[in-house]
TrEMBL record:
<dbReference type="GO" id="GO:0005886">
    <property type="term" value="C:plasma membrane"/>
</dbReference>
<dbReference type="InterPro" id="IPR050086">
    <property type="entry name" value="MetN_ABC_transporter-like"/>
</dbReference>
<protein>
    <recommendedName>
        <fullName>ABC-type polar-amino-acid transporter</fullName>
        <ecNumber>7.4.2.1</ecNumber>
    </recommendedName>
</protein>
<keyword id="KW-1003">Cell membrane</keyword>
<dbReference type="InterPro" id="IPR003439">
    <property type="entry name" value="ABC_transporter-like_ATP-bd"/>
</dbReference>
<dbReference type="GO" id="GO:0005524">
    <property type="term" value="F:ATP binding"/>
</dbReference>
<keyword id="KW-0472">Membrane</keyword>
<dbReference type="InterPro" id="IPR030679">
    <property type="entry name" value="ABC_ATPase_HisP-typ"/>
</dbReference>
<dbReference type="GO" id="GO:0015426">
    <property type="term" value="F:ATPase-coupled polar amino acid-transporter activity"/>
</dbReference>
<dbReference type="InterPro" id="IPR003593">
    <property type="entry name" value="AAA+_ATPase"/>
</dbReference>
<dbReference type="InterPro" id="IPR027417">
    <property type="entry name" value="P-loop_NTPase"/>
</dbReference>
<dbReference type="GO" id="GO:0016887">
    <property type="term" value="F:ATP hydrolysis activity"/>
</dbReference>
<comment type="similarity">
    <text>Belongs to the ABC transporter superfamily.</text>
</comment>
<dbReference type="Pfam" id="PF00005">
    <property type="entry name" value="ABC_tran"/>
</dbReference>
<keyword id="KW-0547">Nucleotide-binding</keyword>
<keyword id="KW-0029">Amino-acid transport</keyword>
<keyword id="KW-0067">ATP-binding</keyword>
């Protein structure tokens, strides 16, 4: 079976700073892979290379059979296959939830108004905020805004969803609602690559966990093994720090 995502020997530098130093991994269709690791290890850069928000310095990124790093690729078409959810929700403040979920469908996919609205409502329902369709972002909680952002990404019918610390900007009591939505997506078979510090989510929902440190993958394995019985000292010490609430310097 073809991989949903295949990353081969990916390097990314910013000037003299080498951030990704040869990343290799794959995600199979329907798999959930969580990426964990300390701040500055290159997790966001990796995700941004997967949808070409950053141009890799070298190496290959293949999504759904299309090599995004090929020089002849239609970048806009390729990017449409990948949904991204950021820590900051990035909703348009002057648009309602419904309009936020419709705009890219209309502008990028050229869907008609009625179809875009139907798909928007479907996805707002899926994430549990259909009753907020006419609210503006400022009238929504962080958790509701993030769920609208997830609906916006889903409305584009992506082959793959990327999440970059989707719950890190949320008040603790709102984290669960967003994780519940992500868990449901995973159960429905969405292919997901998730950067997160939520170790319980990673352990319970991910098929695989990838631990990154210093621009390399230190450990990649089944979630219960990497989190429950890590093999490498760097993974162990990272997990000790994130699982011990008195250490917040991760
Ligand atoms: N656009 C950029 N220009 C220069 N340096 C960057 C840029 N983006 C990220 N970096 C640097 O790359 C390193 C990895 O960052 P990042 O991928 O955000 O790590 P993480 O998400 O794991 O915290 C950091 O040292 C960061 O400062
Ligand atoms: Mg990051």
């Amino acid at each position: 079976m073809a991989h949903a995502v295949e990353i081969r020997n990916l390097h990314k530098s910013f000037g003299a700073l080498q951030v990704l130093k040869g990343i290799d991994f794959t995600v199979d269709p329907g798999q959930v892979v969580c990426v964990i690791g300390p701040s500055g290890s290159g997790k966001s850069t990796l995700l941004r290379c997967v949808n070409l928000l950053e141009e890799p310095t070298s190496g290959q990124v293949v999504v759904d059979g299309v090599e995004l790093t090929h020089r002849d690729v239609d970048i806009d078409a390729a990017r449409r296959r990948v949904g991204m959810v950021f820590q900051q929700f990035n909703l348009f403040p002057h648009m309602t939830a419904l309009e936020n979920v419709m705009i890219a469908q209309r502008r990028v996919l050229k869907r008609g108004r009625a179809e875009a609205e139907r798909i928007a409502v479907e996805n707002l329902e899926k994430v549990g905020v259909a009753d907020k369709r006419d609210s503006y972002p400022a009238q929504l909680s962080g958790g509701q805004q993030q769920r609208v952002a997830i609906a916006r990404a889903l409305a584009m019918s992506p082959a793959l969803m990327l999440f970059d610390e989707p719950t890190s900007a949320l008040d603790p009591e709102l984290v669960g609602d967003v994780l519940t939505v992500m868990r449901k997506l995973a159960e429905e078979g969405m292919t997901m690559l998730v950067v997160t510090h939520e170790m319980a989510f990673a352990r319970d929902v991910a098929d695989r966990v990838v631990f990154m440190d210093g621009g390399v993958i230190v450990e990649d394995g089944p979630a219960e093994q990497v989190i429950g019985a890590p093999r490498h000292e760097r993974t162990k010490s990272f997990l000790r720090r994130v699982l011990d609430p008195t250490h917040t310097d991760v």
